[in-house]
């Protein structure tokens, strides 16, 4: 697993959007990490995160939570690409 993926997972691991306990979202977080690599636009990532949680839990975290997390993840990806250049 590359360094960016580890950092993305660590950030996601701290997020417990449905208060079911940390460590209970690994399949969803794997899908979200993949989506981070696919999208550069925060709102496209927000939509994908909502789809992932809707599919798995038949509910979604608040839009504000999703925007906050998506922004953080995109910023981490952008920071990583800046350090590689």
Mind explaining what this structure looks like?
Helix 1 packs across helix 2 (26-38) and helix 3 (42-57) crosses helix 4. It is built from four helices and no strands. The chain has a single domain, classed as Endonuclease III, domain 1 (Orthogonal Bundle). The chain starts with a helix and ends with a helix. Helices cover 73% and strands 0% of the residues. With 85 residues, it is mostly helical. The model has no long low-confidence stretch (mean pLDDT 94).
Secondary-structure blueprint of this entry?
Elements: H1 3-13, H2 26-38, H3 42-57, H4 63-84
Q: What's the total count of β strands?
A: 0
The best one-word shape is: globular
CATH class category name:
Mainly Alpha
- In what range is the share of β-strand residues? under 5%
CATH superfamily: Apc36109-like domain
- Oligomeric composition of the shown chains: single chain
Q: Give the topology string: H per helix, E per strand.
A: HHHH
- CATH topology assignment: Endonuclease III, domain 1
- The pLDDT mean sits at 94
Q: How many discrete structural domains?
A: 1
Low-confidence stretches: none
> Can you tell me the CATH architecture?
Orthogonal Bundle
Number of helices: 4
Protein name: DUF1871 family protein
Pfam family, one: DUF1871
């Amino acid at each position: 697993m590359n360094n960016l993926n580890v950092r993305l997972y660590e950030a996601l691991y701290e997020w417990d959007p449905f208060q079911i306990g940390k460590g209970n979202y690994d399949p969803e977080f794997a899908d979200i990490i993949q989506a981070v690599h696919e999208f550069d636009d925060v709102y496209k990532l927000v939509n994908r995160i909502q789809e992932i949680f809707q599919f798995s839990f038949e509910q979604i975290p608040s839009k504000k939570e999703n925007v906050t997390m998506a922004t953080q993840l995109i910023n981490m990806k952008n920071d990583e690409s800046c350090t590689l250049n």
